[in-house]
Amino acid sequence: MKKFLVAPSILSADFANLGRDIAAVENAGADWLHIDVMDGHFVPNITIGPVVVKSIKKCSGMFFDVHLMITNPEKYWESFYKAGADLIVFHSEVLCDKMQLVKDIKSAGIKAGLSIKPKTPVKSILEFLPFIDTVLVMTVEPGFGGQSFMHDMVPKISCLRKIIDEKKYNCLVEIDGGINFDTAKICAGAGADVLVSVSFIFSAKDIEKTIYNLQFGQQH
Fold first, then answer.
1. Measured distance CA(101)–CA(105) in Å, rounded
2. Main-chain phi, psi angles of 79, to 5 degrees
3. What would the pLDDT profile of 19-61 be if each residue is shown by its tens digit?
4. pTM here?
5. Pick the catalytic residue: 36, 65, 133, 193?
6. Would residue 36 show up in a list of annotated catalytic residues for this protein?
7. Catalytically annotated residue among 31, 65, 133, 176
8. Rounded to whole angstroms, how far apart are CA atoms 55 and 41?
């Protein structure tokens, strides 16, 4: 049975008790910690910076999946790397030299990924797939948690899975947006490897059971 990597997003954590909430998902068996960074420009919301990442790194041994939803990732990625990021994902829609940025991130000894918003086609990132470690498919419009899963994104997941498998690329397919038991099952069937959950995990009565069920089979 395939195990899916589950990455709770701290976007839905209680920031007054951030260490407590991160410890809760870590102790419950979560695989990655997803950290949404928003600048109020690339997306209409503002979240956290590298200072917060550095602080929580001191109290967690989890794999830090840092998702930069910012306009100029080339200016700020190194700050997040120094703060403790294990994977830095930036958006394919930014205007910087994306191939160079991938190379810079990987040369630092950590993993690099690209994210695509719902309206961005797969063909726009084909040249990067041999070089990145993760492709993050947004199944909601980025910026806020708690949105509904966009089912018309499922063919995009399937398309990426097919290309990656056929070409034998070493690249995970990560899904972010509206993940619950039902949508996780759909994403798993389409070929997802990593499931980012924002509000679904942190609002669960039994976090450990919820994470386990997302990892193994997505059953109620």
1. 6
2. -65, -40
3. 999 999 999 999 999 999 999 999 888 899 999 999 999 999 9
4. 0.94
5. 36
6. yes
7. 176
8. 25
